[in-house]
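Retro notes, item 3 of 5
We never archived the inputs for the fe (iii) ion complex last cycle. Fixing that now. Sequence and ligand:
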Amino acid sequence: MIIDNEDSVTGVVLQAMAGGNNARLRDIAAAFVRHMHAFAREVRLTEAEFEAGIAMLNRIGQATNEVHNEGVLFSDAIGLSTLVCLMNNGANGNTETAAALLGPFWRMHSPVTPNGGSIVRSPTPGPALFADFEIVDTKGQPIAGVEVDVWHSSPVGLYENQDQSQAEMNLRGKFTTDAHGHFGFRSVKPAGYPVPTDGPTGDLLREQKRHPYRPAHVHFLCYKPGFKTLVTQVFVDQDKYLDSDVVFGVTRALIGDFKHHESGTPPAPDISAPWYTLAYRFVMEEGEATLPHPPIR
Ligand code: BEZ
Ligand code: FE
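Structure as it came back at the time:
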């Protein structure tokens, strides 16, 4: 266990870390060390670069508080969150609908809303959106009684909790699928928005000359005991940031067909053109229904 030189460090560390009763932790820690050491070797990390990296890690921790998780944001911006999400859900689209990041804006207890009801809870200028969804199991059979949380940003790209002008719980709702597996609502078309750039993740984006935007999307959390909880997003197909989402949340199957309507009979008497309609089908697979921790209250 004595280190001779640079070449023997990794082996000595791995040997020192081989104890403990938790086999999974042992595997993860060993792989982490192997990859970190290989990374340092590959780039021939200098001492100044090592210090800069540690300072960045520290700043990520310092920028994290009750309502903001810079660690998650950093993982999002390097695609690690999406990789972990896709590895653990949906078997590459072969079973359930592709999952997507929960993000920092899910709130529990969004208002229970009847099917077809509006989630616009205070005046919110923007084109109307009429959305209709079906949830089926892996055999294509409709699933009744799925509780679905829906949340999205406003047509100027702000969630209600970021915007004084929006009512509490505006553009959020909780629906339950009917006997045919359907739920739907009326809203306004969301806009994309930038992620926070006042921390170390923002510094990284600026350094890499990347924009901080997410394409417009609607979030869904579908929950029913007996089925694996589906957390996903459906993206607005015309969005200019679709192929450059700063957090890499877009997968092809999640691009929605937001149909633009200029003429014809509007779906409600108070609607004037243009308006949008969206129809989308989710697939849930059998499994354990769990709920994530809400990032905000
Ligand atoms: C969101 O879609 O709400 C989101 C996801 C990751 C980072 C920031 C926002
Ligand atoms: Fe979002």
